[in-house]
Amino acid sequence: MKLFHTFLTGLVFGTGIAISGMMNPAKVLNFFDLAGTWDPSLAFVMGGALVVTFIGYRLVWRRAAPLYADRFQIPGAKHIDMKLVGGSALFGVGWGIAGFCPGAAIPALGTGRWEVLLFLGAVAAGLALARILQGQPLITRSAKA
Question: Transmembrane stretches, by residue range (predicted)?
Fold first, then answer.
């Protein structure tokens, strides 16, 4: 059942990304082009996502635990450090240059565009480099695997 719910969640997410136009890098780049061909429609997509997330969290936090885990896993860090700021800035710059964010690029694999493969390859290389620089192994095994 967990696999079915995972599939259904991915299907809904990918459909929403496709309908909203977030798989189209030109539409995303136009959202960032405030002085030129600005397209505010993605602000409505993000606003809608915030409303759904707000309601969803209110419902989920009423539960004692998630459906498929013993407990909620909440980040313990409470401070803003240079890793967070640098990573956020790098994410924003990459999104602004490429017109893709990782969440939208994965469903965009279905378009068969080489740019999507290049972008996700760069994301994977960046993640691997970050792990190497932090002295972490490239591949970790889950205890539940």
Answer: 42-61, 82-110, 116-133
Average pLDDT rounded to a whole number, residues 97-109: 88
Q: Is the pLDDT of residue 42 over 70?
A: yes
Using alpha carbons only, how large is the chain's radius of gyration in Å?
Answer: 18
For residue 143, pLDDT over 60 is answered with no
3-state DSSP assignment of residue 144? coil
Side-chain-side CA neighbours of 26 within 13 Å: the count stands at: 1
pTM over 0.90: no
Question: Which residues have a Cβ under 8 Å from the Cβ of 91 and sit 6 or more positions away?
Answer: 101
Tokens at 85, concatenated: 């700021």
* Cβ–Cβ < 8 Å for 100, 108: yes
Count of alpha carbons within 13 angstroms of residue 10, beta-carbon side: 10
Number of C-alpha atoms within 13 angstroms, CB side, residue 55?
A: 5
Place of tokens 């696999």: 3
Contacts with 77 (C-beta within 8 Å, 6 or more apart), sequence order? 84
